[in-house]
Amino acid sequence: MYSLLSDLSIIEASSFVASPTAGLYCAQMGAEVIRVDPKEGGLDYDRYMLTIEGRSLSWENLNRAKKSVALDLRSEEGRELLVALAATAGNLITNLPEQSFLSHGAVAASRPDLVSLRIMGWHDGRQAMDFTVNAASGYPLMTGPEEWDAANPPPVNHVLPAWDFITGAYSAFALLAGIRHRERTGEGSELRVPLGDVAIGTVANSGAMAEMLYRGGDRERLGNAIWGAFGRDFTSRDGQRFMVAALTAKQWRGLVAAFGLGDAIAELEAEFGVSLASSDVPRFANRHRLFDAFQHAAGQMKWAELEARLLAEGCTYERYRTMHEAATDPVLVADNPLFGPSPANPSGFTYPAARSFANIPGQPRGNPQPAPFLGQHTEQVLADKLGLSSGHIAALVDRGVARLSDQPS
Amino acid sequence: MYSLLSDLSIIEASSFVASPTAGLYCAQMGAEVIRVDPKEGGLDYDRYMLTIEGRSLSWENLNRAKKSVALDLRSEEGRELLVALAATAGNLITNLPEQSFLSHGAVAASRPDLVSLRIMGWHDGRQAMDFTVNAASGYPLMTGPEEWDAANPPPVNHVLPAWDFITGAYSAFALLAGIRHRERTGEGSELRVPLGDVAIGTVANSGAMAEMLYRGGDRERLGNAIWGAFGRDFTSRDGQRFMVAALTAKQWRGLVAAFGLGDAIAELEAEFGVSLASSDVPRFANRHRLFDAFQHAAGQMKWAELEARLLAEGCTYERYRTMHEAATDPVLVADNPLFGPSPANPSGFTYPAARSFANIPGQPRGNPQPAPFLGQHTEQVLADKLGLSSGHIAALVDRGVARLSDQPS
Q: Among A249, A277, A337, A352, which is least packed by CB within 10 angstroms?
């Protein structure tokens, strides 16, 4: 863990993926992130994959390096404690609805310079999740094999909840923008990030919305080909599938050399009357003929030979892995400084844990931290942040307003 | 445009998607983002979709609200100007290699408290792009229809360059973390964000890496079903495809009511011996039987009726749209405050433009800004930031070291 944000304290009242991710990124950069949950755990506390003992491997990865406070959030008293914690910290990440007890106004009443970051569904308050905004975005009807009926292809949902992760990272950015603004001006900010706006806004930012409007219709199906450039998956003689990409003349020349296609490409260039090294345009326009040539060449070579050639030419390529293969690949995980040794996870299961995506050369990266047990820091946080006495806290626990750690004794 | 970051000036030397996205998010929050490109434009200056006049709709959306400086970056003098601009701003976003003239050290030599954010391919310096890190991540071999041969499914690449967009948002966050740290301590930071680490790190953060290791193998194929919960695409009697999600008891009860399945579900619960409202687990475990019941019900109703019922029950659902349908959907675009009127785009094409994903209630959102013409701000920036005289700048232009706007006269 780096310490860039070590002076920050953030209350996170959230569930699922986007909102916990925003807190995770801050925690991995050294912020104190206190996740406040209902006594029985948030809606995501039992998200798959569950271990035999019922511990969520999803939860314990999305909530690393955070503290946990467990309160009865159905009770007035529990809600007041959460509002008081958010007001004390002055920084709040949440995906609770604005029309809840945790509105910006409710917290800002006692903390006018509050910076709150609220992840919403659609901008108008309608519920949405990654899976549903994705359906609206247009991407699922563009995904999948090129040969599918272009007039009526089935939707293909992504497995990566991409909108959640983009929203989480963007929300961490927006929160820091608000915090920095307060530090310079004294003003708080209420920031709202609708998941649906991240999706349709990304369609716009990528240029795809302008493209569809300019075309007056939808893009042709591309399968695994890269839009507007040269790249696709190919299969070696021994059946290894791999992806190659050439978006620059240098990448293109490297691929042609690695595949041993110098002569064949020269013949095609003569036939097409273009230089294929000149730009993406002729490579994309003639992609089907080029794909045939590349697949023919790939089918002549075993993967070991082909990879040696791709490596020697400095090509941009990667072999497809199943996720289990990825998880056990030393290049990706064991030998990658992104990962550190397993901390003592709540599940008891031992496996590599990720540090922050950003690395800072010359600064110690520290080791990844575990997620907390639910309520593990209830006592400490109520005492340190709200100044409650141990007697007061014990009474809250007795009355069921607060809960201590769910770690099995 | 909001003004949270209006006191910041950032030099961006970048291309493609991830790195320009980081600058875009900062610019949409009011930062002065100065993109410095080679005279002929960066590697992404001609990225598809191109208009008939050859203007990239991709470029003009990923570079909104930025300034543009065009220099001969092959010349020593042009490179020195870029290094001087980065040193003057003190903030740098780039995807140029560390082993280039724009290393952190080269800029920090005259600006020790520089905050640089460098987007890389793999952490070890190997080249990578969204398409290739995606192949390594495991997701493409999990994507696509459930009925495909589980032992040897073809890879399905995502069309959304999700890793680029996650990396872009995360990089904007990491940059602000570094800037804020400097403001508190005086220290600069060199932050590196490898695209490959964002991919394999997200596999870890999502819990999927732990899941595969815990299983000792890969997850079963799910098609469009939501992992570990209830949700899938269904088709109405009149052929409308739509996605539904139920991750909470409330969402589940709403869906059962909207589909008119109260009795059928009660029968299934009796047969299974479980309460399907109790948790995700029985809904996921029995998903195939449930999917059959839901599809049967959906096939009885036209979409208009079904949607009215889904809306009345407050369900989380969305109909699939093609991207052209999404781009022309008033709910998503024309009536969505995320979008503003078309600025004067370099392409001359007029279409809705997105504001920042984050909205701040009660603050004026301002209108989206256009991308610059290449070199549009060369003169202004060299004068204002480096104090060059107009004669000096004219000489740079004459000698081909700097270029003015490529706007057709």
A: A337
User: For tokens 């990448």, what's the residue?
Assistant: A251
Q: Identify the pLDDT of residue A276.
A: 97
HSE-up (13 A, CA, CB side) for residue A191 = 34
Q: Is the pLDDT of residue B40 over 90?
A: yes
As given in the structure block, the two tokens for residue A169 are 């990272």
Listed residue (A214, A248, A284) closest to B60, CA to CA = A214
B87-109 per-position pLDDT tens digit: 999 999 999 999 999 999 999 99
Return d(Cα B303, Cα A250) in angstroms, integer: 51
B379: amino acid identity, one letter: E
- At which residue do the structure tokens 């996650």 appear? B166
Residue A334, judged by CB atoms within 10 A of its CB (0-12, 13-18, 19+), counts as: exposed
| Token pair belonging to B206 | 């999502």
- For A8-32, give one letter per residue: b (16+ CB within 10 A) or e: bbbbbbbbbbbbbbbbbbbbbbbbb
Contacting residues for A172 by C-beta, under 8 A, at least 6 apart: A21, A22, A25, A26, B169, B170, B173
How far does A104 lie from chain B, in Å, by closest CA?
A: 10
Strand order in the sheet with B241-246: B230-235, B241-246, B316-319
Distance CA B17, CA B164 (A): 6
Nearest Cα residue to A85 out of A10, A187, A186: A10
A394/chain B closest Cα distance in angstroms: 31
Which of B5, B173, B179 lies closest to A169 in CB terms? Answer: B173
- Terminal CA-CA length for chain A: 29
pLDDT mean values, one per 10 residues, chain A (409 residues)? 94 97 98 98 94 97 98 98 98 96 98 98 94 98 96 96 98 98 97 98 98 98 97 98 96 97 98 95 97 98 98 97 98 97 97 97 94 98 98 98 94
* Strand ranges across the sheet with A230-235: A230-235, A241-246, A316-319
Interface of A with B in 201-220 (CB under 8 A): 201-219
Side-chain-side CA neighbours of residue A311 (13 Å): 7
CB proximity A123 to B under 8 Å: yes
Buried b vs exposed e over A266-288: b needs ≥16 C-beta within 10 Å?
A: eebbeeeebebbeebbbbbebbe
